[in-house]
Amino acid sequence: MRSQLSDLRGGKDALEQLSRPGPLTALRGDLGMVGIPGVVFAPEEGLGLPAVAFAHDWLQPASRYADLLRHLATWGIVAAAPGGHQGPLPSHAGMAADLRTTLEVCAGVRLGDGRISVDARRTAFAGHGIGGGVALLAAAGHARARAVVTIALAQTRPSALEAARKVTVPTLHLTAGRDTVAPAAGHAEPVSASAGGAVVLRTLKKATHTGFLDGTHWSDLLLSGSPDAKTRRLTRGLVTAFLLRELSDENGPLDEVVVGKVPGTEVVSRS
């Protein structure tokens, strides 16, 4: 994978390539086998891999993020999504605890018949909607996580804004320009402004809150917008670039993707 990344010719080429499946075969597993409901995707083999624990949005099953999680696995990142707290009144603190447990399990046991292991020093939290806020709650109470990604972040209780002040690792916030569920002005933007570490806040101009989801679900009747293939494709490239940069110490063209100009998006702030 490192050799494939070294062939990238600038940010545009990097984004184009990272938006497509990577060179590795992804396997799907069930977190329920280790006592946590949810899914995990990983390359078919590899030792000391980076990993990310992903939190779902309000009412959403973890399966609606399979497209992104599988994609990350093809690029060498173990990606796991706990599936608890799907009811109308979820415990955000409980979701954060599940995220931390998920990372601990991934780093503490061999996956894939013992052919896959995770380096606990190369881990991150991520999430969509309230899951984005939950990712910050989890990171604020986790000493070893190296990065955070939020997608269309929604505020949480306990406060994601307060948690962000305690998070000193690099954070990428992706927001939707047409988000009427959790508009950036009231959610991601103040959270980004309170960041305790380096942050990039990027808006996908034509995206909606639910554009990042895959498939259909009864909750679509309650939320504005709809799943969008172009939004998911762009998100795959941006998230993959950021996580590879932060968890695998890859730079060069990845820096251009993370902080540079990307068509259809706008970097609102960075520090």
UniProtKB/TrEMBL annotation:
Keyword Ribosomal protein: no
Domain PET hydrolase/cutinase-like: 115-192
Keyword line: Hydrolase
Pfam families: PETase (PF12740)
InterPro entries: PET_hydrolase/cutinase-like
GO terms for MF: hydrolase activity
Record protein name field: Alpha/beta hydrolase
Organism: Pseudonocardia oceani
Upper taxonomic lineage: Bacteria, Bacillati, Actinomycetota, Actinomycetes, Pseudonocardiales
